[in-house]
Write a sequence for this structure.
């Protein structure tokens, strides 16, 4: 008994499905400007099975930002607005030497430098704009982060900022051990960056620690020179490495040190001569490091 007449619709559907597989697969010709057939009405079918899959190569980017120029003076910049600077008058002492080092604010000249470096990063190196910022809790570092946020609010205004009091303790001063500082940075980034899946991080801190640890990570035989507001941009092809593994074992490349233009420094010194106090030593040469500068030995213990 022929039962096909009992299931006419099922048989019809089966024939339609079978006929659809009889059509050859049309491959997309990526070298041809024409990606459609029949006058461009119907897109070609991309042959995914024959496509070349390019694996994602993870790259960690790490910015070492040194705080902006600070001041001992009572009229130092604060709270993100130059109009808040206190004007010096006859009743004010010029310098407040009783102010603890950790709580010094940045000077007006430092504000200009930090804003300039922030704009340079966004316009020339946007791939280094960080997902998170980890900063020393020293006032001059917090002021610097605030300057970045105000100079480029779209890039830095909503960035997560995390305090790291240990950066001040291990990075500030002349007797700084680079390996000890790297360990402190690694511990902080391991916790904060890996938890947030961040691949671009900015750490804000002090010399001589920042110069030493950049030299250590990049295995540079040259002296690394970072003046105030300078920002060293490092990258590492991480592959499957975690942040901890990359910082301890990775090959880091120093791509650029963002610096305050020499012309801007000269102009700022003329506009704010009161900052030229004899209470700290600052090299007037703000030019970029000479490539032929002799090797300087640094303790990595």
């Amino acid at each position: 008994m022929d039962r096909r007449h009992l299931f006419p619709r099922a048989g019809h559907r089966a024939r339609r499905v079978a006929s659809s597989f009889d059509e050859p697969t049309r491959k997309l010709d990526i070298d041809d400007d024409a990606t459609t057939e029949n006058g461009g009405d119907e897109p070609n079918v991309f042959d995914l099975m024959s496509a070349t899959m390019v694996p994602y190569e993870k790259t960690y980017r790490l910015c070492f930002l040194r705080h902006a120029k600070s001041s001992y003076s009572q009229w130092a910049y604060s709270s993100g607005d130059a109009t808040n600077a206190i004007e010096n008058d006859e009743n004010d002492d010029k310098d407040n030497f009783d102010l603890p080092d950790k709580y010094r604010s940045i000077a007006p000249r430092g504000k200009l430098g930090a804003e300039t470096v922030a704009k340079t990063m966004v316009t020339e190196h946007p791939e280094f704009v960080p997902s998170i910022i980890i900063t020393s809790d020293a006032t001059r570092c917090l002021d610097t982060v605030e300057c970045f946020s105000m100079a480029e609010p779209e890039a830095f205004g909503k960035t997560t900022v995390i305090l790291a009091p240990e950066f001040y303790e291990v990075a500030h001063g002349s007797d700084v051990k680079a390996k000890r500082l790297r360990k402190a940075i690694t511990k902080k980034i391991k916790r904060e960056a890996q938890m947030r899946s961040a691949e671009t991080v900015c750490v804000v801190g002090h010399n001589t620690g920042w110069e030493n640890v950049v030299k250590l990570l990049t295995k540079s035989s040259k002296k690394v020179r970072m003046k105030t507001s300078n920002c060293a941009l490092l990258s590492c092809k991480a592959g499957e490495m975690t942040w901890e593994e990359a910082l301890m074992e990775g090959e880091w490349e120093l791509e650029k040190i963002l610096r305050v233009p020499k012309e801007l420094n000269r102009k700022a010194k003329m506009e704010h001569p009161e900052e030229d106090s004899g209470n700290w030593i600052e090299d007037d040469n703000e030019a970029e490091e000479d490539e032929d500068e002799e090797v300087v030995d640094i303790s990595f213990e």
